[in-house]
Amino acid sequence: MTYQEKKGIVSLFSTILIFGSYCLYMYPRYPVGGLDTETFRYWGSFVLILTLLSIIAHILISIVFNIVFRITTREKEPKFADEMDRLIELKAHRNAFFVFIIGFLLAMGSLVIYQPSKIMFIILIASGFISDVTGSVTKLYHYRRGV
Fold first, then answer.
1. What confidence score (pLDDT) does residue 76 get?
2. pLDDT tens digits for 113-123?
3. Do 69 and 77 contact (CB within 8 A), yes or no?
4. Which of 41, 45, 122, 131 is the most buried (most CB within 10 A)?
5. Which phi and psi angles does 18 have, rounded to 5°?
6. Cα R_g (the chain), whole angstroms
7. How far, in Å, CA of 39 to CA of 104, rounded?
8. Residue of higher predicted confidence among 14 and 32
């Protein structure tokens, strides 16, 4: 298994673990009641904290992964990306952005058909998560099967 495949698997599992644990942490804190400023404050903090937590966690996990990879294989991580790596990265970004845009449109559509605002936030957050997973799975697929 190549470095990129191992990194993709670690990224996929860390994304699922971070999102799942954060959702389990925030679920009991959902404010009970109707449409008020506390509900919007909850969803705003949910998105902002999840974004910051994900960025920090992915950086730390990447550092730990590189250290463990170097210790176990006695190899350095590749310092360059060839054309295949760039093409795979572009395809993964394309697929992830496509999934997020579909989720964004569904979230806006939920407001058009008079769904509660919490449905919009749930769809937006879920589409962000699914787009991240889609990007990681696309990378794994193309590193395994080729471009």
1. 79
2. 988 888 999 99
3. yes
4. 131
5. -65, -50
6. 18
7. 20
8. 14
